[in-house]
Every structure is written in C-alpha cells, then in structure tokens.
Protein: Replication restart protein PriA
Organism: Blastopirellula marina
Amino acid sequence: MSTGPEKAFDYLVPDELIGEILPGRRVYVPLGRSNRRVMAYCVAVERKEYGQRKLKHVLAALDQQTLVSSHMLNMTQWMADYYLASWGQVLEAVIPAAVRGNAGTREVTLLSVPPQVAMQLATLKLTDKQQKVLTTLAAASKPMTPGDLADKCRVTQAPISTLRKKKLITSEVRRVSHAHFDDLDIERESAKSLSEDQAAALQTILAQVHAPQPKPILLHGVTGSGKTEVYIQAIQNVIDQGKQAIVLVPEISLTPQTKQRFASRFDRIAVLHSHMSDVERHWQWKRIASGIVNVVVGARSAVFAPTPHLGMIILDEEHDTSFKQDSVPRYHAREVAAKRAELEKVPLILGTATPSLETFYRAKQGQYELISMPRRIGNRPLPAVRTVDMRYDKTTGYRGAISRQLYQSIQRTLQQDGQIILLLNRRGHSTHIQCPACGHIVKCPHCELPLTHHITDGSTVCHYCDYRSTAPRVCPDAKCGYSGIRFSGIGTQKLEQEVKAKFSSYPIIRMDSDTMKKPGSHEAALEKFRNQEVRILVGTQMIAKGLDFPNVTLVGVINADTALHFPDVRAGERTFQLITQVAGRTGRGDLGGEVLVQTLSPDHPAIEAATRHDYALFAERELPFRRDFQMTPFAHMVRIIARGPAQASVELFMQQVGEEIQRFTAEKGGEISQQGPAPAPIEKLRGNYRYHLLLHSFDRHLMRAAVLHCREKITVPEDVLWIADVDPIDMM
C-alpha cells in the first residue's frame, strides 16, 4: 500500500485466483479489524507453511498484466530502505498514475466461441442469422465486440443475445487501449566518423557492454567533445543485440534537441517528460513494456521505464541537481540508475563536462571506470573566458545589468552576424521592493521572503509558494505611505528590457519558467534561435546546458554570484558547473567564441577555476575541504526538516530529535556529527516555520537506524510535520 503499514503482510491466495495473483500486480485485500477493502501490491507469491496463524484471503486481482518486473521489485525494495520511505510509496512513484489509472483505455465486452461449440457448428439447429453470427465469430482470429460482430454480419444485437443466453457464445470484459500517437517523423542521419578520443571512449564502453558484471562509467568530456555521438554509437551496438537503452536528460529544455538527435538515428524511440498527457504517457509506457521501443529518452522518472530487454542506461549531464526528486521518495536518479544497472547487469554511462564531486571521487577510487575526452571535435579551442569585476566603482556609477565590456562585445558580435546567449539565474523583473523612506521590504505573508516584481502583469510573486499580489505604488506600511517605493535587483524580465532598449533592432527571446509554460514552447523558442530568427537568447539555467548552436559566438553571465554565497556545501560546485556549462555553449562552430562572466567575487576559487576550464583545479581545492568537514562524497548525509505553524513547537521537536540521535549514537558506540538544529535558511515557508538538522556519518547504516529510531521513539506534535532527506541536494 502507498500509505499505511510499511511492512509486507501474508495473505492466502484462493484457488480461483491462482495464476492471476502474481508479483508486481495490484490486488484487493482486507485490512485491519474492520477488514476494510484496500488496494495493495503483491510483492511475492510463495508456497510455505504458515502454522497456526489465521490468514485472510486475497479478495480480487486488480491488474491483468504485471506492472513491475522482478528486477524492479528488488530495486524498489532497495529504494525504500535507502531513502527511508515505505515500499508502497516507492511503488507508487515507479508506476505512473496514468498507468495505474489505465488512462486512454475503456472496458469492452469481447465475445468468442468455445472450442466444443465450434466443433458442433454443423449439427446445431439455429436460424440463418444465428448461424451466420456463430460461423463468423468461430472463424475470427481474435475475440470480437458485440458491435463489431453485428456490423460484420449485418444483423441487430438480437441473434447475438440469443446465442449468449444459450451459452453458445461466451463473453468476457476486458480493458483495452483506444489511444494512438504517431511516431516521430524526422529525417534520418547516418553515423558520424569519430575522433580519436571518441573512438577510444566507445571501445571502453563496449568492453563494459560485453562484461559479465559491467562497471559504471564516468564519461568526462569537455563541452563540445562529442559525447552524444559516443552515446548513439554505443546504443546502436546494444540495439543490434536486440536490447533497449534508457537515456536520461535533466531539463525539459534539453528533451527536444536530444529527442531530435536520437530520432534521427533510431527507428523506434519513446519520449517521457512532464508535459505529456496521461493518455500519451500510458501509451508510451505500454509500447516500452512490449519491447518494440529501442530507445527511451526522458527526464528523471524515465529511469523506471519498463524495458523488458534493458541493455544500457545513460545519464547525460549527470551532475544536474534536477535528477534529485524533491518529494517522497526523495531518490536521486543517478543512484537509482546505478542500482538498476547492477541488478540487470548492464552498463551505466554518466556523461558530463563538470562531474559531481560524488561521481568524480568514485571514479578516482576505482569504483567507476573513468573516460576522459579533453578535446573538442576538430580540436576547436575552448572559448576564452574573462571575468568582469562588477564591484562598485565610484567613478562610473551604476549603469544597469550589462557592463561596458559586455555591451561592446554584444555590439561587435551582432555586427559580425553572430548569436548571443545571456544567462541570469533569476526570473522576474525586480527581485527587491523596498520603501526608501522607512525601509519597509515587501515580503510574502506566508514565507516572509522578499517578493519578486513581474512587470508583464504588474504582479509581485513569491517564487516559493506562488503567492501573488498587485505591485504596490506606495509604501504598504500604513504609518508611512511614501509614494517613491523602489524596485531594485534584476531578473530576466528586467534584463530583457535592458537588452531591447540597447539593441532594439535585433530580435530577442527570453527563456525561463514564466515564458516556457505551454507544451511545445521550448521546442518553438529553440527552433527560432537555431534558424537564427532570433539573435539574442536571454534565460535562466535552462539555457546553460546541452544546447548546440554553432553560430553562438558570445556568452554573457550577468551575475555569477547568484548562488555562490548560499549556506550550502555545494554552492561553489554549482557555480563552477553553471559557468562552465554556459561557457560551453559558444565556440562550437568555426567562428570561435568568447565568454564574459560578470561577478562581484572574481577571486573566488570556483569562478577562477571555471574561467580556466579547469575541473581538476576545482576538485583539487574543494575535496580537502569536504574531507575535513565530513561532507559528501567522503561521508553520508541526511537532512531532517520539520515544519509547523507554531515556531516554539517546531524548535522543541527538533531539539528532541537531536538529543535522541545523540543518545542512540552513544549507545551504539558510533559517530554521527550534527549541524543544528537551527532555523532553515528559508525560515518560514507557506505559513510554516522550518527548522533543520544536518547529520554526517561515515556509517550510513548507523545514520539510517538513528532516524528510524526517532520515528518510533519520539511523539510528534499534531501540528508538526517532519521528513528525512537522504543525500540532500537542497539545503534551503
């Protein structure tokens, strides 16, 4: 069950249901003293003695097909254990709601002629119409619906009903699909010749494809080194063996281009992403499960694709934080993919120009095979990256988001018919609304965070709870009422305005979560940019990764410091990755490229390493710091977060959790380091106060046991909710 008991229960299978109750299918069972009818998952069927126990009987089978294979059942059990979730919750996450709800299907009655009746057709005394119906149905290659049978025989339902009453025709109700979507119709491309680095990488991958217990592979290739072509040729080898491949991409904005690349090379691909309808998702799921799909391309949840003949899993941009689920079960697709690859004995390829430190460390320790691709295709040079020091200069004053150096580079690029990408990882117009007279800051009433001004509809928006209100014209403080309220800070909307004002004769497009809400909007925007209908692309991090446009010769990072000083162990790592990735969008053609990084921290190690395209330098500086403070990848981490409307209750509860973990650890003779409990960086969210506690330990099992101990030992106040996030990514 998705809710309720976390352990498995034993039930008796009635004789009439033997063969229908199978592992990986849903059933109805009685639960509790009241024997209420509930849906549950069958996870095993066994013949065994059960002694004097009184077991209840399974009531009915819900599914006619198996939803979860034996490998996937093992994986979901591992996920439940690792991520401190119930097995039922994991199963609900693995099987899409569209599949559980049979989206795009309907129940139909199917008619057939029993074999013993078919043998006596000539001796039965029937009317002409009845004889025609029975003969037609007996000759049919598969069961028919009453409507189809009546149409074929050109009769009413009367003779069919009579034959059913005489039991000469049997019927069954079955759920069938009525959905259909056309396959992608994309012009085919032939395989490309490989560079020396690509060929060596492919050979290493194929060696693991044929290994009895393949080892995960980190494909560390600089931006533009041709990782995708290596993926494609490795997948072709897998398909030639009659197997399937799963390709995971981090952002919806990557899916159109990735889909295009794979659809141009393979006959049958399935695409899974969040913008699909339930009917389409179910249809694709069934195609994948049938084995006719060669390649599955999708975001995080595609790691659960029901491929019966899996031969390879690929995570492109493996470092991306969107591979971590932010609701129960809080899994990381990289770790789940590694477990699935291990269980199904297939290779896992993790591709990126900026590996997560967890993956890089495992490769250095020999747990993963490391493949380096340090050169771009055609030996094109990596773009020159320069920092622009944005610290306030009294002689020049503030002149907007675009520095003089960046302005000149944009002007020069446009004159040379090049294209430009400008990255600002802050959406909205103004990120700060404050009264200069009394100092009042306009905040979200539910989160106590500054509201962002969105100029398109004149609203102020909280980007955490989506609270919206009209932008104030005067100070909201009744005691003040000053009319000169100030809108400061910069988001992508204000940047777009500034770019349009300074370069008004050139077409511009903005890509962020405000403009890319409609299905197909990513494809349409990128297609315009690809066709050079648009010269300047402004956007958030969704434009920083995976895009390949040879005519882009300038990239500008408007503010490299947006996440640099967050209270997060990965702040420097994320900044390095973002700058390196967006820098990689330029210089991919014959025209070369240039990158300008505007920053208030030009001497920060992460920014310095990114400007030099030097991942080794970044890792060399960052890993000792992580080791000294028992941080990932050297130690395991669990973040406990509690929330509730009363601050005192939440704080007291979290103190109890911290003390109980200390007691438990002392009793077991182990070591778990604690940071906190303390107010979370975002202390109030959606009307609830939030406290968090960060646990570090070299012993994952001890930490897991400590959290489970707290669940059993501590009484949680009614108004407090708490979660345990294993391997946390979000520290806010």
Remarks:
- The chain is about 30% helix and 20% strand.
- The domain at 384-428+489-626 is CATH 3.40.50.300 (Rossmann fold).
